[in-house]
Every structure is written in C-alpha cells, then in structure tokens.
Task: inverse folding
C-alpha cells in the first residue's frame, strides 16, 4: 500500500512539473526573429489584409470584362390580361368595297345570283370613308407566364473611370503589403529590444556573480589579515568588506530577476508558451561599428520606411480619385444585347408564336449634362485632399529625418563610449589586480582594494551598457529605415 501511494505521488509530481516547465530554447537573435515571424498573430492579420486587397483588385479588374446575366421569372395571374377598345374609329373601306365586288363576281360565276346581287348591293351601299363605333375585349396573354432572359452588357467608354478604379485597387494592394512590412518591422524591432535586454541582463548577472566572488575573496583575506594581527587591517575593515559582499549579493539577485523578466518578455514577443524557457546562445555583444553615414540612412528611410511609402501611395490614390471624379464630365457608352424566351399557356395575343423568342442588340449612351455642380465640387474635394496629404508628406519627411538623426547620434555616442570604456576596462582590471596583490602584502588599506573591485565592476557594467546602447541604437535605426525587414523576410 505504501509503495502504491509513493508511485502515485511521484507521478503527480512529474505531471505537475511537466505543466509548470515547458520547452527550453537556446536561441540566437536570428532564431528568435524567425520564431516570432512564424507565431506572431498580427502578421496573420496583415496577411489577411493583403488577401482582401487582392480580392478588391480583382473586383475592379472585372469592369474590363462583359457582364452576362441570366434570369427566369414565372408567375400566375388572378385572371388573364385583356385588351379593351372603346370609341369610334375612321376606316378606309376601299379595300372592303373591292372585296365585296370580288365576292359578287365569284358568286355570279358560281351561278348564285342571289349572293352576287347581295354582295354588289353591300359594295354600292358602303361609302368610301366612314366612322364605325368600336367596342371589343381581346385576351392578350394567358394566366401562366414564364420569361427566361439572358442579357449582356459591356462598357465601351467610361471617361477613364474604370482605369482609375483599377489603379486605386492596385495601389491598395501595395498599401496592404506595406502594412505587412510595417508589422514585420515592429515584430523584428521588439525581438531585438528584448533579446538585447536579456543579453545585457545576462552579462550584468555574470558580472555581479564574478564581483561577488572576488569580494568574497577580499572579505576572507581581510578576515585572515585582521585575525593575523595586521597593523593596517582592523575589524571595521572586515565589517566593511562583509557589507560590500552582502550588498553585491543583493544586487546580483535583483539583476537575476531583471534577466528573468527580460527573457519572459522575449518569450511573449516570440509567441511561445508562457512556461517555456530561453537561453541566449552567445551572450557576447558584437563589436560596435559605424559604417553608415547620416545622409545614407536618411535617403534609405525615404525609400523603405513603411509609413512614408504608404503616404506616397495614398497621394497617388487621390490623384486617381481626381481622374475618377473627372470622368463624370464625359459620357458613358456601353454595348447591350439580350435574348428572351416567353412561355404562356395562351398562344395568341402578345404571347403568340412570333413573340415567343426574341433578341435585341444596341448601344447606350449616358451623359450627365447638369447635376448642380456636383462633379466639379467632387473634383475639387479630391484635389484638396491630395494637397492635404502632400502637406503631411512634408511634415513626415522632416520628422523621419529627425528620427533617423536621433538614432544616428545614439549610435555615434554609444560607439564613442565603447571606445573609451574599452580602454577603461583594461585600466580598471590592472588597478584591481595591483591593489589585490598589494593588499595581500598588507601594503594598501582595505578601502582601496574594495574601491578597486567596485570601480572595475562599475567600468565593466558601463562597458556592457555601451555595447547594449549601440546595438539598440542600430535596432532603432533599422526600425525607422525598415530596409533590414527585406532581409528578414528572405531568411
């Protein structure tokens, strides 16, 4: 029984551990970016927006083709339709008289003098013109009617409206593509920021551990010197070294917490499960470089920045909207053709055999001659909207140059700091080494060796931050310029 209880408890612990700890990922920056581009939900939304723009473009392109519509209508009426005629009509009886004369002659030939005389009398009595009262009701169709029709329409000329709509839809596809580039740019920028932050925290955490280890050595050395009867080392020196170790230990724990938070943010940005863990494959920062000029970065930003390129395309779309509005000044011409079949249970009237099948073909023209200045005001509205976008373009252009300049100055400043601190790190290491050796020989005071340890740690921390600031400045410049997004999409 105890053995069964132990196995069940062990399985429960294993199951709980599996739910708390997910997969572990050892990542380079490229690996993190690749995972984020695969998992990010915003990119899927952008891809759907591109598909929507494609369908809108295809809809606009359909105007270049004829439209063919088929329809079938069947109905039953409460009563058959009738044609009624009431009134007086004037008729020309010349043909009627000739008909009666012909009948009279035929009757005489047949040897029927009675009919011959009768028809001749009617002809003689009928005037050349006369008015006759009319009163008749004629059924025109049956109660059941079915009409099947196929109709074709094809625009021959629209004043440029179709071309303008197609161009607008085409640029709409480009804007949707720029939207995806913008989202990709944001994802890449976020990953770089979190990855560099995790890398900095990892470097500082390692530095804190190394500093704590060195200070522990100084503390132990101070204790030996104090208890060994040194003339320079007193109990207060030992307490000072002990306090330094405890403070550095506290700082180390704080840095480790920040490291975990930075990695948690990186996991979230990559779209990984919350219980996964990540490790930075190479904790060392790349050596900072300054290979680009400010003018080159600004020109590249004007070419690749998604916001700027989107605004330029929006200006072009408004130009096409002006052409679309101007098309109302011109007539619209179209070709029309149709074929029709008519079915009815009544074979006379309007539904006779002759009218059962019919077709038509023709050309239609629609030209708005006056619409209360609506067209001219619409053209002016689109022209002003284009002018407004062009004014915004000037503002965005200046703002974009300012952002690029700020990122460039950050790169430049961090690069200078890196070069200065590279030398300072070597000097601080030599200073710490010499003071430690001298302290072992009881030649310097405790505060000097502690100060040397802390100065080296501070210098190394500033050195790591300078490399982090330079990497982050490059990431900010890439985010503004957005050229590097093309490289990420091709990986």
Result:
């Amino acid at each position: 029984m105890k053995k069964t209880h132990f196995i069940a408890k062990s399985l429960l612990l294993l199951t709980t551990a599996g739910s708390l700890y997910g997969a572990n990922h050892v990542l380079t920056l490229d690996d993190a970016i690749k995972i984020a581009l695969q998992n990010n939900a915003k990119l899927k939304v952008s891809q759907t927006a591109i598909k929507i723009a494609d369908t809108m473009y295809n809809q606009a392109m359909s105007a270049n083709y004829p439209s063919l519509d088929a329809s079938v209508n069947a109905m039953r009426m409460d009563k058959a339709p009738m044609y009624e005629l009431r009134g007086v009509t004037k008729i020309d009886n010349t043909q009627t008289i000739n008909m009666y004369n012909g009948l009279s002659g035929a009757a005489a030939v047949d040897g029927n003098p009675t009919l011959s005389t009768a028809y001749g009398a009617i002809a003689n009595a009928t005037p050349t013109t006369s008015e006759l009262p009319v009163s008749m009701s004629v059924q025109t169709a049956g109660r059941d009617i079915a009409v099947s029709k196929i109709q074709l329409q094809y625009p021959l000329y629209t004043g440029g409206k179709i071309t303008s709509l197609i161009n607008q839809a085409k640029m709409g596809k480009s804007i949707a593509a720029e939207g995806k580039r913008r989202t990709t740019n944001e994802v890449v920028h976020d990953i770089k920021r979190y990855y560099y932050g995790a890398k900095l925290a990892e470097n500082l955490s390692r530095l804190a551990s190394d500093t704590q280890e060195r200070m522990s050595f100084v503390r132990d050395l101070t204790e030996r010197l104090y208890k060994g009867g040194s003339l320079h080392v007193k109990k207060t020196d030992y307490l000072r070294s002990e306090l330094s170790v405890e403070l550095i230990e506290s700082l180390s724990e704080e840095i480790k917490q920040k490291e975990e938070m930075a990695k948690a943010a990186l996991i979230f940005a990559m779209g990984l499960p919350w219980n996964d863990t990540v490790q930075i494959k190479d904790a060392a920062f790349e050596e900072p470089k300054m290979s680009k000029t400010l003018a080159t970065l600004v020109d590249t930003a004007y070419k690749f920045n998604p916001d700027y390129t989107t605004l330029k395309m929006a200006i072009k779309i408004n130009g096409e909207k002006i052409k679309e509005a101007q098309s109302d000044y011109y007539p619209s011409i179209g070709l029309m053709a149709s074929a029709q079949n008519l079915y009815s249970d009544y074979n006379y009237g309007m539904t006779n055999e002759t009218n059962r099948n019919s077709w038509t073909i023709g050309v239609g023209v629609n030209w708005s001659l006056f619409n209360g200045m609506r067209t001219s005001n619409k053209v002016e509205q689109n022209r002003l909207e284009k002018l407004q976008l062009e004014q915004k373009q000037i503002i965005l252009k200046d703002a974009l140059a300012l952002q690029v300049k700020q990122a460039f100055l950050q790169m430049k400043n961090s690069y200078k700091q890196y070069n200065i601190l590279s030398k300072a790190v070597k000097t601080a290491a030599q200073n710490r080494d010499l003071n430690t050796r001298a302290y072992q020989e009881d030649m310097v005071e405790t505060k000097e060796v502690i100060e040397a340890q802390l100065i080296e740690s501070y210098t190394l921390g500033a050195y790591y931050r300078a490399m982090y600031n330079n990497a982050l400045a490059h990431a900010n410049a890439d985010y503004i310029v957005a050229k590097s997004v093309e490289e990420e999409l091709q990986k």
